[in-house]
Amino acid sequence: MxxxxxxxxxxxxxxxxxxxxxxxxxxxxxxQLFSSVSMDSAEKIVIDKDRVLFAVAxxxxxxxxxxxxxxxxxxxxxxxxxxxxxxxxxxxxxxDISQDINNFANELIEYRNMGxxxxxxxxxxxxxxxxxxxxxxxxxxxxxxxxxxxxDHSLVYKLYExxxxxxxxxxxxxxxxxxxxxxxxxGKQTSLDIYIKESNLNNTNLLxxxxxxxxxxxxxxxxxxxxxxxxxxCLKSAVLKAGANDNFSAIYxxxxxxx
Length: 259
Known about the structure:
Elements (H helix, E strand, L loop, with lengths): L4 E11 L9 E5 L2 E4 L7 E5 L3 E10 L4 H16 L6 H21 L7 E10 L2 E7 L3 E6 L2 E4 L6 H7 L21 E2 L10 E6 L3 E6 L1 H4 L4 H8 L4 H11 L6 E11 L1
Antiparallel strand pairs: 1-4, 1-13, 2-3, 2-5, 5-6, 6-7, 6-10, 7-11, 8-9, 8-12, 12-13
Helix pairs in contact: 1-2, 5-6
């Protein structure tokens, strides 16, 4: 049996928003890394490869620190992607990167306590690995419905899983910003909570985004944008209309598989 022929129709955007002074998000599109930039509109690229990586990182720690952390983690992930061929190897790579960011901040003390959360999609020829650390998310556009494929590492998501709050309450809960796993350069972190989901490769549409996207809008609005020809422009407009009080970043991937 011949190998599947893959094509990825990709739209992407990273934006400072309307309140923050700097963009601490970074995004990785195959081998292109975008950091410390703010795009006015979604950009696009078509990729024909059987191994490709997409990721969004949301930096924490204020100006300089947050954007350094998100860029650092995505740079390391891009370099180490060649070593990833399974859930186990992806987990090992992410754990190595956690140690790398600690070592970096131990050498440059001014970056101590910077951090970032992350979500991404790794295409490995005939399968997909969907992963996250923290509260960036990956959604599938499942016939117009938004199916969250990742699991937030946050206090409020745990409350949701315990049945104490509703799914939509996650966005407005007073403790919504308390993440329980992140790449933090504090010299103490020994392990990460990492979520990895393996899926068969098929024709599907995936959205990777920071919390600046999903917190700003309702699930209904997200699904309305899934129904638009230009999903990311719709999402950008919706987030800006909602006030865009955080940096926001998103990657929308249309996967086409030909046998």
